[in-house]
# Entry
Amino acid sequence: MTGVFFKLCMFRIFFNTSLTRNIFKIRMFILKNETKNRKGFGTVENKTSGLRAPRLVFSLSRSPNELIWPGATVFSEIGQDSPDIPGNPFKKVYGSSRMKATVFVGIDVSKDSFDVSCVDEQEVIRWAFKFSMDRQGFGDFFKHLSQEQSPIIALESTGIYHVNLLTFLSKHSCDIKLVSPSLVKRFIESYSLRKTKTDAKDAHMIALYVRRNHNTLISYKPEARQCLTQLTRTREDIQQDIRKTKNHIKRLLILTFPELEQVVDVFLLSVRLLLKQYPSARIVRQRRARGVKKAFEAVLSQQGRKMKLTPELFIHLAKKSIASGDEKDEKALLYHLEHLAFLEKRMMDLEKRLIDEAYKRYQKPMAILTSFKGMGNILASQFLSEVGDIHRFQNYKKPVSYTHLRAHETSLHLVCRLLLE
# Structure
């Protein structure tokens, strides 16, 4: 059995060696016959057999004698001499034309500066610099960029720090890829296990990422939705401030008048007007019942509707209250009530401007969206501020996936189909 096993192993080694040698001879035969008429990269056709075979290319990023197929990360430029390395079968192979290769530029943006790394198709660094985030830095960067024939630029979406540089590059008609930081992070983790992180290395990783994925990335184009997006973000900030202010009011009422929240909604406008005059149970107990009734009548005359809370119940709750707040709590409550009224007024003005801008820029989509039940002007404006030009998507399912909406997907599919028509 040992002798048979040894013979099988020797046969397998001999077979693999012979197969590798024959494949190499076939590749060299195809290369020899097709070198004269090749133009550019891709596949070459054998005149004798009519078969199409991939072209062999020499890579500087691998071992000197290694031959790789196109589709790897590195290609040699047509018309460029291959390195004078012993055993290199592609030395002095020329094409019919000389082309300048595309370069890929990665930018890592920070508050006061930005790092740039430029790599070629062989993923070799051509140049790497750090520029200041000002007009002088933009000019110096553009001087280096203008020396390249067809650069593809990629930078991460980093909140607001990248906006000025992005606007500058878009005005000069550059091919820009705005990539997600999470995608770049995954690429870095898959590229190397080392956790060393600097701005220069991040710029180099972004350049490598766009080098390998530029065919699948969408080029950045300024859109009309940017104004809507900024207004929507501001509205979300004001909403967050309103929630915080309401939480402060609730906490202060626990100290000044905790029984009031149990019988009525304290954020009704009529109740808030009443609290401006009587911010605590202590003050209600100090006033006469006639004055409290007049205050109720004044509030009802301004609002034009009745409250469930009556003057008698209000006085009764104040007398039985366990409140322990003092004057400083009452002053804090009055401040937050005034601040809430200010925020709500700003919210109304902002929503009016948001709706006007949405109808000005997307009149037809707004008419389609608001025709559906439950879709008001605000929600339609927010949808368009995130989606923008819906025709940039390939089909009607893409916008639904892009917005991460899951409820009532059938209705959303119908909406997107109508918008795409």
Remarks:
- The two ends are 74 Å apart (CA to CA).
- The CA atoms of residues 234 and 350 lie 8 Å apart.
- The first strand starts at residue 43 and ends at 45.
